[in-house]
Amino acid sequence: MHILQEIYSKRYLIRELVVKDLKIRYSRPLLGFLWAFLSPMLIVLIFYLVFSLFLQVRIKEAPFLLYLMTGVFSWRFFQDSLISSTTSLIDNKNLIRESSFPYYFIPLSIVFANGIIFLPCLGILIVTSLFYLRGLPLYIVLLPIVLAIHLTLAIGMSLIFSILYVKWRDIKYILEALLPILFYLTPAFYSIYLVKDRFAHLLFSVYMSNPFVGILNLYRLAILKGFYPLIKEDISLLSLVIVASSFAVILLLLGFYFYKKNKNTINDYLSY
Amino acid sequence: MTTSLTKVAENNYNMPTNKVIELRQAGKKYPFVKQADKKLRDDFSGLWALKDVTLDVYNGEILGIIGRNGAGKTTLLNIIAGVISATEGKVYMNGRVLGLFNLGVGFQDELTGRENIFLNGAIMGATKNELENKLSSIVEFSELGNFIDMPLGTYSQGMRLRLGFSIIVNLDFEILVIDEVLAVGDILFQHKCFERLMDFRRAKKALVITSQSMDLIERICDKVALLDHGKLLFQGNVTEGINKYRALLNSNKFFVGPDQRDMDLVENTKKWADDTSNWDKELGTKEVAIEKVELINRFGCKCSRIKSAEPLKIKVYFKAKNSVKEPHFGIAIFRNDGVYCYGPNTKFDGYKIPELKQGKGYFVLDYPKLLLAPGEYRISVAIWDKFETLAYNYHAGYYKLTVIGKYNGGNELLNMPFSLYPRNYLNFKRKYADGIDLSLLNDKWENKFETEQINAESVKLLNFLDEEKDIFITNKTVKLIVNFNKLIDCRKNYSFWIGLYRDDGVYCQGIIPALNRGKSFKIAFPKLPLLPGGYRISLGIWDMRMQKFIMYHHAVYPFRMVFNRADHGTVYLEHRWKWGMIE
């Protein structure tokens, strides 16, 4: 509660930090903010070429392009947030040493900044889906909840990794190695049924308990018309929400526990 | 707006309302996590960047923190600003703290000056409204003009200082902390900063600054704290603190670990000099090096023994590596057990040496009469800088001197001239003195022992105007009058003894008038040369047959000496300085 109060009372500082992050990122490039869409779109394009045209991957749940876009966009948001916030305390050590403000604002603001970049991507996705599938599912009302879960998860993990990184600089490389694995473990460009057919029941449950699988499916369910009816018999909405949200809450609490524990000492490790 | 630390202070602790910073035994130890070299790791793991610092700062005070590089100044500032937390001890702040640390810290090169104002201000805890209201005064104070809309990467150090300083001084705070940055600004801006800082002082805000510019510290601070190796060596008066810091600069190597003796030197040069364990040691920057020291007796010959109360010249040869402006010479004499006899220097004597040119030279200290009692002595020789704080070369207790004379049984220190009245008492026989065993008085300080037969009725000290006093001026006449209740017949193997002691128990001089008979004795010191401090008078009557005192008043009569000038030691000895260069 104290933390929520703090966030609310210092919302202006968070806003400034978010603006600073965006400005630093997009004020110098010629194409500016356009890169926020361009880079994920380019990835989608490459994946589409490789998987759909060359490898002839076909998916029954949804059109492959839309399936790919939901996967790549939401993953990009998560990955960018995590990677840049992991090093953020060190990157911004000058800010932290300047004044005694709550330093978790820094990873927090980076996740928010990435969220802001993610929003227009989401808009493009919804518009594309609207035209491609001639309509949106009713589940779109769930979209804010899905976003909230996703954001919470990203904040929790960013906080944990950013604090760990200050003391343990290997984290960055471990993360760089693990994130692609995690990406391939989520059904970004392959059907869940591919996994279900291969894996035994127990193993599939383990696979499904990956919060990113849950979040990705929730995005699809909320945006892609006709997605949920197709998978309804195998995967329930409730289980998706519960798995993802409980993960998100636990990681967030863990993150703040970490913060509280290291609050007073972190500055000693920032110098070098 | 306040830091969490502040909140603790406000809720659980009641400080006096005018006290804004309170540190109690605060210490800081940085974690040195990874060091490949195990030895290095061990060396540093026990390193306290700050240790046992107790400090108070009140409203409207400017505290300057001085010390060498790495002494812990920035750590202390960071703790005060709440940026880092103390490992041990207690830290209380009363009010909002703002800090201006390294230049450009917290600034983003990609953002413009204006954007940085908002970001920086927000980090400092200001609200949007506050910043928007103050924006124009910040920009105006910084005098950056159109540069305010240029990215900060295009700014010079001085411009960054202008921006940083303008932001913090325009925000609200109770405590302001500034680390070594003001020197970057040009003279006009510095002047403006000082004016603003003075405004803050008038507005009863507390300021804490560090600087290597003693000039600046002297100009604006109300008090200073001197740090070295994380320890607070001194806190208080600015001039005194700066002098101590200059003295600290003596030890030319710094990162070799704290040497307790160096610190003692800072705390009390005299005490350090008194410490016989420092003898035979050498100190200083050696810009001027002492090459040879000669002791010369009254015949002009080199010697190591002279007779008590005879002339002594101490001639010191030195070599100056570079030319040195306004140096000072000092020579101190100690008794072999460390008692400081006398340490004159050219600074105290107001003797000016305009410049030592590069090359060889000498100086001479000439004592027409060395009023020291027979015994073994040590001599320290020093060449100091203008302020007598930085030693160019200091030979502590290097040189030995033996004073010979009549047998010195009671371990006297001095041989001061005196006269006894009436005149016919003026033949004192030392052999009587030899018999008195003063060790019997060892634990009788301030004790009286009397028998019914003989008693001292009155003991009076008179100044040169024959007024009874207990404070006297060095080098003026002092008379001592002792009256007994009956005649003392010293032919019956009695000795009458008078002892002069320093307050700390050092036996200065004993007087045994070999009188025949008498009831009243008068002793006059035509020029009592004792240096400022407290002294005691003892008297006693010794029975030579029984080998004991039949009465004594040991250290019962106190008096003080004052002097109209500064001097070190126990006794003032007439002296002259002379110096020259050797072509």
**What is the helix fraction of residues of chain A, given as a range?**
over 70%
User: What is the average of the pLDDT values of chain A?
Assistant: 88
Radius of gyration of chain B: 32 Å
- Judged by helices, strands and strand pairing, the structural class of chain A is mainly alpha
Name given to the CATH architecture of the largest domain in chain B: 3-Layer(aba) Sandwich
CA-CA gap between termini of chain A:
33 Å
Number of domains of chain B: 4
User: Averaged pLDDT of chain B, please?
Assistant: 80
Shape of chain B: elongated
**Quaternary organisation of the protein chains:** heterodimer
**Beta strand count of chain B:** 31
Helix content of chain B: 10-25%
Tally of structural domains of chain A: 1
Shape of chain A: globular
Count of DSSP H/I helices of chain A? 15
Give the N-terminus to C-terminus distance of chain B in angstroms. 71 Å
Largest sheet of chain A: none
How would you describe the overall organization of this protein?
The complex is a heterodimer of chains A (272) and B (583). Chain A has 272 residues and is mainly α. Chain A is 76% helix and 0% strand. Chain A has helices spanning 2-9, 11-26, 35-54, 64-86, 88-91, 93-98, 105-132, 143-167, 171-184, 192-198, 201-208, 211-223, 227-231, 237-262, 266-269. In chain A, α2 crosses α7 (105-132), α4 packs across α12 and α8 (143-167) runs antiparallel to α12. Chain A starts with a helix and ends with a helix. In chain A, 40% of the residues are buried. Chain B is built from twelve helices and 31 strands. The radius of gyration of chain B is 32 Å and the shape is elongated. The longest helix of chain B is centred in the middle third of the chain and has 16 residues, at 187-202. Chain B is an alpha+beta fold. Helix content of chain B is 20%, strand content 38%.
